[in-house]
Amino acid sequence: MTIARRKPPTMAQQDYQDRARALGVEVRPVPGLPETYAASDGRIFSTRKDGFRPLSLFDNGRGYLRALVWGKHRLVHGLVCGAFHGPRPPGLEVNHKDGDKYNNRPENLEYVTRAQNVQHSFDSGLRESYKREAHPYAKLTEVKAAELRAEYWSLAVNDRLPRGEGKRMAEKYGVCAEYLRLVATGRYWG
After folding, report:
1. β-pair type (44-46, 57-59)
2. Largest Cα–Cα separation, the chain
C-alpha cells in the first residue's frame, strides 16, 4: 500500500504574505481550507497550484460571488468573513452591512441571525414588503375584497355559505374556497 505524500511547499507558497503585501492587501488563511487565503479586498487566493494566485470569481445567479475552491463552489463572503472574523458561529449567517453583495471586504461583513439579516434587507430597501394588492401575485384589490366580504356575509347562514355558493364565489373572484373564507372572516385583507 502506497501512501500519498504531499510535496514540500514551493517558494511561492512560503512567501504568500510577501506577495500579498506587494499587492497592497492583507491576506489570512481561510479556516478549514488548506492552501486557501482571503484578502482584505474581498479576493480569494490559492497556493494549491502554480503558487500564489487569485481564484476566478463568478456570480451565483442571485447576486453573490462564488469561487471554486477544492472542487466545490463556495460563497466568497463566507470565506472572507471566516478568515477575518473567525469561523461562523452556529445559527448565524453573514450580512453585507452596506447591502452590496459584491463588496466582500471584511469591514463590510458581520455575523447576524437570520431575523436580523432579513430585517436589515427591509430597512436598507433591498427587499420590499408586498402587502395586499401591491404583491405581484395578488388576485384581489381592496375594492374586490370588500365586495367579496359583503357578498359572503349576505349569503351566509350561521357563519357558513349554502352548499355550492363557496365554489361559485371562488370562481367569480379567482381565488380558492379556503382563501375566500379567510378574506371574508378578516384573516386576510382584514
Report:
1. unpaired
2. 86
User: Residue 76, class by beta-carbon neighbours within 10 Å (0-12 exposed, 13-18 middle, 19+ buried)?
Assistant: buried
Tell me the per-residue pLDDT of 106-158, one tens digit each, with 9 for 90 and over. 999 999 999 999 999 888 888 776 677 777 778 888 899 999 999 999 999 98
Say whether pTM exceeds 0.90.
no
Per-residue model confidence as pLDDT tens digits over 51-65: 788 899 999 998 999
Query: What torsion do the CA atoms of 77, 79, 84, 86 make, to the nearest 10 degrees?
Result: 110
Closest CA to 101 of 126, 68, 83: 126
What is the enclosing helix (H) or strand (E) of 38?
strand 36-39
Q: Is 29 helix (H, G, I), strand (E, B) or coil?
A: strand
Name the strand (E) or helix (H) holding 85.
Answer: helix 76-85
- Classify residue 26 as exposed, middle or buried by CB count within 10 Å of its CB (0-12, 13-18, 19+): middle
